[in-house]
Amino acid sequence: MDEPTTGAAKALSDAPRGTETILLVEDEESVRALAGTILRRHGYHVIEAPSGGDALLICEEHGATIDLLLTDVVMPRMNGRLLTDRLRVVRPQLRALYMSGYPDNSIVHDGVLASGVAFLQKPITPETLTRKVREALDTPESK
């Protein structure tokens, strides 16, 4: 006999899925591991990097398409916006989704991010992560 589906299990099974490649840049190992696990369970190919410098190297060495950069905003040595700017020199079509434990209005106010960019507030949940990733991938690029 099948077990009844719990609300949490149902929400996870209904969460958006994909097959795209995501470059996940997060300096906190536990957050990076959690986000990577969630995304892989939803069909995405995930390449993890613990820093902006590592992400730059990975981007140079990875010959295939990277569809989305999912990056922490506040990281040592290179913030997420600067990383995005540098990666778009070699991958101009790269989409970006920023995440932070700081409220998005404080990051915009401090000039780190422009208003209206794709943003995910930490702490993350499987539902919000997969929804925001799917939105970032499905939103037409602005020119």
Would you give an account of this structure?
- The protein has 143 residues and is of the alpha/beta class.
- It has one domain (18-138): Response regulator (Rossmann fold, 3-Layer(aba) Sandwich), CATH 3.40.50.
- It has helices at 7-14, 29-41, 52-61, 80-90, 104-109, 126-138; strands at residues 21-25, 45-49, 68-72, 95-100, 119-121.
- A 5-stranded parallel sheet has the order 2-1-3-4-5, sandwiched between helices.
- Helix 2 (29-41) links the parallel strand 1 (21-25) and strand 2.
- Helix 3 (52-61) runs parallel beside helix 4.
- Residues 1-5 have low confidence and may be disordered.
Quick recap of the structure?
β1, α2 and β2 form a beta-alpha-beta unit. It is built from 6 helices and 5 strands.
Task: For the structure shown, list the relevant keywords.
143 residues, alpha/beta, 5-stranded parallel beta sheet, 6 helices, 5 strands, 17% strand
**Termini Cα gap:** 54 Å
Q: Can you count the helices?
A: 6
CATH topology, anyone?
Rossmann fold
Low-confidence stretches are 1-5
Rg value:
15 Å
**CATH A-level architecture:** 3-Layer(aba) Sandwich
Q: Give the number of DSSP strands.
A: 5
Q: What average pLDDT do the residues reach?
A: 86
Residues in helix, %: 40-55%
How would you spell out the order of helices and strands?
HEHEHEHEHEH
**What is the H level of CATH, i.e. the homologous superfamily?**
Response regulator
- Report on the biggest sheet: 5 strands, parallel
| Strand ordering within the main sheet | 2-1-3-4-5
Shape field: globular
Helix/strand class: alpha/beta
Question: How many individual domains?
Answer: 1
